[in-house]
Amino acid sequence: MPTIRKQRSSSRSTTDFSGISNLPKDLSDLRLHFSKTSVHVVRLKKRTNRQPGQSYYEKEYLGRVVDGRYYSNAEYSRLFKRGDVPRTLPKKPAPKSSEGLTSSKNIKEIKEGAPSEGGFSERYVGIGPLIWKLAEEHSLLEDLRASFGPLKALILISCVIAQIENGSLVARRFEHWIREHLLPFNAPMADGELSDFFVSLGANQTEIRDFFHRRRARADKRQTILFDSTTITNVSKGIELSKAGKSKYGGFSQQLCLSLLYSKTTHEVFDACLYNGNGSDAVNCAEIMERLKLEENMRDRIYSFIMDRGYFCKANIEAASKTGGRILMAAKKQPSWVLEAIAEHRDELTGFEYALPNHLSVAGLTVAIEPDDQPRSSRPNIPVWLHIYRDETAASAEKIKFFKQLNEYRTEISAGREVSPAMEEKIGRFFKVEQGKLVPKKRTIDDCVRNLGIFANVTNWACTAQEAYELYSQRDEIEKVFEMSKEELSADPIRAHSTDAARGRAFLNALTLTVSGILKWRMSKELADTLKRTSNNEMKAVSLQEKGLTFRELVDAFRHLSVLVDQSGRSRFVGTTQTKLLQRYCADLHLEEALTEVPEYCSATYVREQAALQADAS
Question: 70: how many CB neighbours lie within 10 A of its CB?
Fold first, then answer.
């Protein structure tokens, strides 16, 4: 499209086109405009301001003149570099906007590639065949097609492959990266078209919810669900949910809140939602729990939801319980009913009787809490069980830290230094002045020491303190998921300029986390131990984790995997030695068929099917 700029008229232009070939037929209103390095062909349109006597010319840049020949903007970009320097190899033209996602011609041309002189075309496939096989084994492809349709499903799984292999998914880079790689969806896709795809994805929340519902329905009836939220930054103020908040790196930034339901049992994301940034965790729980409550298949399932103390409040305990699931939530000490129970039972935690068998430094006991129907009461109106713990190791470390702090307070006052109002309030809590001397408040300090190392959990079902402790210890898994999302997949900051685009990117990130989580589980010792218990040959199952291979090293090992495609559409993997090594990795992942043969999306038949699919979509 021609470039349009507003500019005052300049004397550095002329209407003399003599000696220039290939010019447009209509030369009216055209000018030659001379810049420092190039000669431009522009069309001048006079515009008048509202104030009388003021006007300006709007310049529409149509192309450039090089060596006496006119080239349109598209032709110039394809044949020349900056400064009118000819390209060694002409740049392949980008697809027209009307041909981006709906042109069967583009799909066939890109997928088949341009055969070399030997009649073959080499294309990178990277980790694509492994992800494709994994998605088939775990029915991800089937659920994506059922929820989004065949076309969107191919785009989504291709974006997942790109994000895992590159560690990010930047639209402007994806446009060039896709030209060298053979993906399930491999039509030319400009950065604007990929952004539009995310907008259309996020605008239809019904499809996203249907996909997550299918994944939950497909999972086992017993599930351990981790629920948590994290803050992600964004660079655009066009996202309605974006709010300014304090950054952990200092200063303030625009923020969004991302909440995830993550299954510890199947290692996949069961739901993902974006909320207003700079908010409280406690307000993000009710919507997802209400959505789960409406699912018919929840009635015969046993879901155990694990949440940190950020979600601890009466409303969330009751909302989560209405789903029919089991709730395990870290408790805050501020509510009166929690403080009373701790004060009553904390002295019992010092004996051997309540020491947890597998964690002897931790003692725990369980207290049944009766429901309270009073609206203003902080106690839930359903029966709950409060599990109170004391960690002796943590108590010792906290006691040393606490005494150091008290000593600093005493030193500050004794030296006569000025202190802040906040510190003065803390000092007044633990010290008093008698006869001009600073005297510690022994009773207050002893009471604080007795509470050191004490923490509590709440469940809505009867279980022992040890069961609740061991179940809650699994919650660190979702912290690792958030870390992977931000560090390995570059999901923070989120690259979107509207709320719908942000929601679409959040869903893609959740889908990538699902694929990565399943792949990591297949690499782990956990799967190998399971297979050893079911196999007679214990030496047969050895995980990649036991061999010292990390997730990123596995991805990098597949990075240069490529296929040769001949003119008839037949394809094969390149490099026998490399392929054999990767086949051993696939065998360790128990996905032996991933590299047994070239994936179906590399075949000529698949190309024709997708071309027909694109034609139907258009």
Answer: 20
Alpha-carbon distance of 220 to 338, in angstroms, equals: 35
**Rounded distance between C-alpha atoms, residue 113 and residue 122, angstroms:** 8
Cα distances (angstroms) measured from residue 258 to each of 49, 246, 487, 489, 498: 47, 16, 15, 15, 15
Q: Model confidence at 104, in pLDDT bands (50, 70, 90)?
A: very low
Residue 464: closest CA among 382, 364, 369: 364
Contact (CB, 8 A) for 197 and 617: no
CA terminus-to-terminus distance, the chain: 23
Instruction: From 289, 296, 297, select the one nearest 323 (Cα to Cα).
Output: 289
Angstrom distance (rounded) from CA 40 to CA 64: 4
The β-bridge relationship of strands 39-48 and 30-34 is antiparallel
Cα–Cα dist 17/94, whole Å: 30
- Where does residue 469 rank: exposed (0-12), middle (13-18), buried (19+ CB within 10 A)? buried
Cite the DSSP H helix spans in 462-541. Answer: 465-472, 476-483, 499-523, 525-534
Q: 277 near 240, Cβ under 8 Å?
A: no
Measure the CA–CA gap between 502 and 237, rounded to whole angstroms.
Answer: 12
**Whole-angstrom distance, CA of residue 473 vs CA of residue 364:** 14
Structure tokens at 580: 């054999």
The span from the CA of 545 to the CA of 189, in Å, is 37
Backbone angles phi, psi at 534, to 5 degrees: -100, 0
User: Per residue in 569-615, pLDDT tens?
Assistant: 677 888 767 788 898 898 888 888 888 888 888 765 665 566 566 66
Q: What percent of the chain is predicted at pLDDT more than 90? A: 18
According to DSSP, residue 91 is labeled P
The percent of the chain in helix, strand and coil, each rounded to the nearest 5, is: 45, 25, 30
Contacts of 9 by beta carbon, 8 Å cutoff, 6+ apart: 44, 56, 57
Rounded to the nearest 5°, which phi and psi values hold at 571? Answer: -140, 155
pLDDT digits (tens, 9 = 90+) for 225-257: 888 888 888 877 778 887 877 776 667 778 888
Q: Are 391 and 362 in contact (CB under 8 A)?
A: yes
Express as a percent the part of the chain with pLDDT over 70. Answer: 83
Q: Is 196 helix (H, G, I), strand (E, B) or coil?
A: helix
The SS3 call for residue 533 is helix
Phi, psi of 87 (to 5 degrees): -75, 145
Residue 182: both structure tokens together = 């053979």
In this structure, the number of other CB atoms found within 10 A of the CB of residue 453 comes to 22
Provide the whole-model pTM: 0.75
Categorize the per-residue pLDDT at 118 as very low, low, confident or very high, splitting at 50, 70 and 90: very low
CA proximity to 128, closest of 606, 611, 612, 617? 606
Q: Which two tokens stand for residue 187?
A: 């039509």
Question: Pairing between strand 302-307 and 326-330?
Answer: parallel
DSSP states along 110-144: HHH----TTSEEEEE-TTHHHHHHHHHHTTHHHHH
> Using an 8 Å Cβ cutoff, are 544 and 587 in contact?
no
**Long-range contacts of 414-417, Cβ-Cβ distance < 8 Å, separation of 24 or more:** 414/438
Return the structure tokens found at 55.
């006007």
The tally of CA atoms less than 13 A away on the side-chain side of residue 151 is 17
Q: Residues near 495 by Cβ (< 8 Å), separated by ≥ 6?
A: 170, 171, 235, 505
Give the model confidence (pLDDT) of 170-228 as tens digits.
Answer: 777 888 888 888 888 877 788 888 888 999 999 988 999 999 989 988 888 888 888 88
